[in-house]
User: Fold these one by one.
Assistant:
Number 1:
Amino acid sequence: MKKNSFIKLFIKNKMGRIGMIIFMIFVMVALVGPVIVQYDPQDFGEKEDVLQPPSLTHFLGTDDLGRDVFKAIVAGSRVSLIVGIMATLISMVIGTSLGITSGYFGGRIDDFLMRLTDIFLVLPWLPLMLVLAALLGASIWNIILVIGVTGWAGTARIVRAQTLTEKERQYIERAKSIGASHFHIIKHHIFPNVFPLIFANTILVTAVSILSETTLSFLGMGDVSKPSWGTTLHFAFESGALSNKAYWYFVPPGLCVLLLVLSFTLMGFALDEIVNPKLRER
Amino acid sequence: MKPLLKLEHIEVKFPIKRSLLEVIRNTPQKLVHAVNNISLEVAEGEILAIVGESGSGKTTLGKAVNALHDSDVVKGQITFNGQSIFDSKGKLLPEYRKDISMIFQDPYQSLNPKHTIEKIIAEPLMIHKVTKDKVEMRNLIIEALNHAGLSPGESFLNRYPHELSGGQRQRVVIASALVLNPKLIIADEPVSMLDVSVRSDILRLMMKLREEKKISYLFITHDISLAWAISDHIAVMYLGTMMEYGKADEVIEKPLNPYTQALINVMPKMHVRRNEKRVLLKGETPNPIDMPSGCSFHPRCPKAQSICKNVKPMPDWDKHGHMNYCHFNEEASHE
Amino acid sequence: MEILNVKDLKIEFNLSGHRKLHAVNGVSFSLNKGETLALVGESGSGKTTTALSLMKLLPDNGSIVEGEILYKNQSVINASAEKIRSLRWKEISIIFQGAMNALNPVLTIEKQLMDVIMHHDHLEENEARIRAEELLKMVEIDVTRLKQYPHQFSGGMRQRVMIAMALACNPKIVIGDEPTTALDVMVQAQIFDLLERLKKVLELSMIIITHDLSILGDTCDKVAVMYAGEIVEYGEVQDIYCHPKHPYTQKLLSSYPVIGGKKALPESIPGIPMDMTQIPVGCKFAPRCHKAMPICFEEAPIQKVENGHRYFCHLGGESL
């Protein structure tokens, strides 16, 4: 597929277009926002500032410690995006390398790696993440690591399946008959042909990673010094914002998570349709 | 002429993966007998055609010569230029890969769609580290393209396989096979996927390369008429066994083996014979897991006797180097 | 007795960007009862399109723009949708190319045969089952194999099942689209042998679509050689083999080596098939023809007829 037609197809796709717009807005906020809006989680407000509804001074009101919710969300967008993307990268590297190794070499290696993958697939990932996060301690890097290390199994399965198809291609046999090494074949033939699928999968996994991060932070495993949307939700829950009907405290971060995850899901579906011609609408 | 390639008692047997239950029950390992005890020679500049239907093991044999199978499924000795292709530790001699090349059946499948023609032909040069100099490499690629009839070669460098026709793609495959100056090309049904109009162009190209570069061919095909038209010797295979071998004209004009006779008989002959009574073999090639006892052709052979069922025939060579694998050699040749 | 008559058929496909692909350009032929006609040509010559139009099975973007198809003296082109439905399979059926690989892997052969029978004939299940058995006997497969699945059948066996399906509703005409491509020569000969016998017993007419000229002598009565959507030569098999008039036919014939004939490398046809979106003025084959004269590029040849042997060429039909 030519690169131009790929972009054209993506923009033509309604889901892809909407997802892309939402995603770009969040990226802008994450990049520019913290520069314009300074937010310090240690900067507690005065007593009269506590749990104020939205006003002109506090765009989205204040939390139970008198901090500006809008500022918290702008700062949180950066954390949520970074964690989501970094964790996904880890998942992708693990999933892709295990998937390709397993599919390409087959035999005992395949058996072993796939059983390992099965274990990770059926493990209840939430308790596992909680345990790992608790063991490692609450830092943003640990969260990235925990999400990345637990989220690769699905990718490995998909990549393996595609590798199995790819390795039967005649040009692989041709390369072997020329005397190509396994490394050469994987680098020049298998990986480039599996890549579009990995890319589409990455987008979907990012959505899951962002959701995982929110969950972990909401359950109090987040890094308090770098509050994400999940952390904000955590504090909102802790402080009883729900029973106090302080909707401005918990609705905005929840909505942000929802929109961002939605944007990735939409883009992922769009990409899936493009790289998977069977799904492409005529 | 001294043989360039010598195969001695080649056997290829693939184990069938057993299910867990079978492993526990300890049922014996089943094998696919793809190639059974084949000995052949290819001289310099010679074309040897290997003819057989699907399931005859001809492609498997070609791959064995190309050392594409795992070493534990192939038995026998392969000698190239008087030297075994494996060293004492069972490792393939690296020069061998440069001396042989393979052309595949389907030109749509044998080129990576994501690579340009330049990259495709550069691949063998890169793998064998022929040159690091970019200009020299490009010149070699252009030369190979020109040799393969894609001229001017420069104009093809940046194109992708999907922009080319079937015939042109097969020429690209040939160009990439040529770029290392091989001595032997294994061609597995190189024209059977092509339109009739381009088929002969590719064949002519292959013949031209033989004249110019003294390249030998192992030409694998299901089409015995084509084998006759282009090759020096023909080996007819059935169920992994070589049934007949000899000079192309002799095998076609005086076939000794009942299988070869049947095969030649059913080949379309371009004359009207709708109402002629023909001897058709019954059924189809059985699967090579449960091999028939004795002569593997006996269940379908019109001349089979009880001995064929029980005893494996011995290859019978006459003084002209014509081999027949059959118990009834004399009778057949006097017919 | 004439059963099918096609007159001056023209078929176009609408492509994106208001372009038109002229797939079939004025094809005429007739088919008698019990006769086998071969449509021969390279890929893209319009042979399959012609055959599909006989049952009005063209894809949505294709349409018959001119000409007439008469089945038993009744127009197919102007027939009502209901008429067409009763025509398909009951009068004309088709063995699609590669269809043997399209059998549903999870259904038994019996079920798939019965589905076809019940869909077209509205028979009860019991009757359909009996019919399925009959059909399988007809194509010489052991009836005990009815309950088996496609993967238990070899390629040749599956093709026999496809023939059985095509015969399910007693059609008068069977179209075979490359019925033996991808089969081994021995199996190919068996299939042709079977078709030949079935044809005699059931008094079928057949149209065989193929790119392989060499098999015609084994199956066909008449041959229509197609190039760029036209029948460039039409005649008895014997005449086509022994006295081909059109340079294209001559070239096609010499592109196969034949055992018993002259031992030589097969000949090639230079150039590439015509771009079917643009129709040239002169003879369509002229750019690739080894005998082309100036007139060939200026004027389309008119049909010449000699004893039922028809061809389109400016040359008077001298042999090679």
Number 2:
Amino acid sequence: MSYTTFGFILFVCITILAYFLFPVKKHRWIILLIASYAFYLFAGYKYAFFILFTTVSTYLLARIIDSFANKSDKLLKEHKKEWSREQKKKFKDKVKIKKRLIMASGLVANFGILAFLKYYNFFAESFNSLFNGIGLSSHIPILDLFLPLGISFYTFQSMGYIVDVYRGKVEAEKNIAKFALFVSFFPQIIQGPIGIYDELAFQLYEPHNFDFNRLKHGAELILWGYFKKLVIADRAVVIINTVCADYTQYNGTTIFAAVLVYSLQLYADFSAGIDISRGIAQIIGINMAENFRRPYFSKSINEYWRRWHITLGGWMKNYVFYPLAMSELFINTSKKMKNSRFGKTTAGAYIAKVFPTSVASLIVFFLVGVWHGANWKYVAFGLWNGLIIMISILLKPVFDYINKKLHINPKSFGFGVFQMLRTFIIVLVGYVFDIAPNFTGGMDMIFRVITDSTLGGIRTTWRDILACGIEPIEVVILVASTVLLFVVSIIQEKNSSRHMRDLIDEWHPIFRIALIYLCLAAILFFGAYGPGYNAGEFVYMQF
Amino acid sequence: MKKVYILRAVKIIALVLLFAFTVHISQLYAFQHNGYNKNRIAGFYLEDKNSLDVAFLGASEVFADFSSAYAYEKFGFTSYPYSTDYNLVSLYKYQLEEILKHQNPKLIVVELTMTVNENNDDFSDESNIRNIEALMPLSVNKAESVFKNVDNDYLSYLFPIIKYHDTWKDLGTLKQYIKDSYAMRSRGYTLLKGATTKPHIAKLENLIDVTNDNTVAKLDDTMLCKRYLTEFLDYCKEKELDNVLFVMYPHAVIDSTYNRFCRANAAGKLVESYGYEFLNLEHKANEIGLDYQKDFYNYDHLNVYGQQKFTEYFGNMLKNKYGINNEGMSEKLKNEWDNSAEYINKFYNYVDNYIENNPDSDALFYETSDLIEKLRNDY
């Protein structure tokens, strides 16, 4: 059931009504569970096995970890006086190893399923092509696999939970039905945001009363989401699809324009889906994590990834980056580097210091790339971002030195704008791999943009865009909507401590109603929906 | 506290009403299945309630072959075609329901050409269904017809703006649609009464003379048209309608349409088995005075010359054989119909001139604001 169907809107309305009309307040979460599973089963019965496996396995293993930890603590308390410090340490280490093994079994099983379904064919094809290329015969079979709806999102969310239970950050949930709701909560199952158990779960389970302001704000967020999706993203996608279907037919300027439009389409699409999800949750009384904070205003790639897909970044930071950067291997390597002759130099000392974070960053972004899809182009996308971050960490003193020598004030407005543009171009290079047919296609597209972009090509680009089947007036609407999105983003950026909805609340009611009416009318008339349009699925839906 | 709730309710209701009004007006004037079918069907709903003596139901033959305005001028009765291109017999009962909701005609004439359409795929063809479904105003009857005849995208049939909201992509055409709708609605009635034809004289060849041919082809049970015609007849019986006349309009029959002619004879038998009268005017081409080399714009449709001859013939039959006449109309209504009669004559003069100067034209002439303007000023 796509977000852009009337069926989905009806489903959401019925769920919200059922939730608030359910007489036993403390059991209202059951309505959300039923709705979530209904939503999931509607997408396909065959998917249900996978989400059920993740739910049951994670629930049981977390319970085992928890109960094991409790028993160990009890035993430790009972023998507090009898055991020596060494005995206690040995016991604690043993417990830790056992807990880690249980957690690892959960991670291996669930990430194993995800990896198998998502990457098996990729590896099979890559191995076959590699071995056949060097003259060795390889026939690893290609399987007819499918990817269950939202598998990446619910797997990451569940695995985050099991790690948190292992770390003792949260207690294991005792009620499997409640846990099933945490895994399957329908507004977030398709494309996130990836929830953290101690931030989200209690909100799902506790009863919420109807609140008009929440309804109003949630509905406004949903409306804004539909505007971005239907008026901007789904109208822009025609250009990207047409140009990328055979980019060799276009000059560098047109390819650059397609990448530029993709940056708009991807942001509008992904943030729209998240806004709709968050809006629905907000009406119910659940505050879901923010996933975007005007990413294109970032002044560095590091900052960009703190503003783009925030919950994925947060997940990677908590469960991959820190464990790696703080691992014995990384710390010891850093120490070894520091104590070496190289480490005695200024540069060496600095590199030894930042080694754990920079290498951990590279690994994290390699994983982010792989998470985006089973294709070498996504590996390139991840490594491109990781390398830029790594280089920016390693060369920070050099950049600082250059700025100082050139008398550049890093806090000046002009330099800020330069940094934003620089970051945006780096982001665009990464996006090329996203829309390219494959890795070599991506490299070729970049080459064409560099060598075949001219100002004179703009006229050809305009002709190319119109040949995509988009009318000039549609381009006007797309540009106007983008300007609106940009203006709203600037207002949000300047008032980052407050939501746009709170700012609108301060307007006179007539202007507020007029704004909502105009937004509705814009979607009604300018939205790419209904028969005749291929209802565009959200870009991140099949992740 | 109470005041807060009332204020909120007022704001929500205001927003909902404003939005609903926007949708309604947009559909009425602009974002619709625009064109000659829309203008004709919209024109039907502009007719004064219970003001029609005859209602016609059927496909393109109905609005191409017979002119209601011309019939009024000649015989004094009022009529209107509730018909669209390729009008599917599967939808006739809902259209009859629409006719009966707004009018109480003395006679309902059902043209049978599309009731013997052997192509089953046509019944699920989206464009055929939208031809009429998009144009009916929202009602329980329309909803029923949509849910029974459409497999998906139900809402876009109930609210056509969902399908046609991007008509603005062609601003020039949209402007014309709005102008036409506005002109017709502000006038309050149509001048050409739905008549639509081509200013063209077709060169017809290899015609089959069916004047005395009563060959009956089997209406196969696998044909959906038979099922739907039977359903329609059942419906007429259920409604206890005894003022329904089934007619086959004249065509220029050739090899490829001969079987249809024979199926129409079979449909006639089916109609008669329900106790309704079937009038096969395919047999009467000579009596009507139709000239195959002058009166058709293609093998199935009459041009303006044929339209006048057929209207005179069939109108006369309706008046004298079936006793259709107008038993008094208000001054306002009389003025409107007199105005229509005046315009249809202007229209015939205009098309006559047009054919002379543009013998190869294949344009379709129907009531638009520009055409009316031209007729008013030049004819």
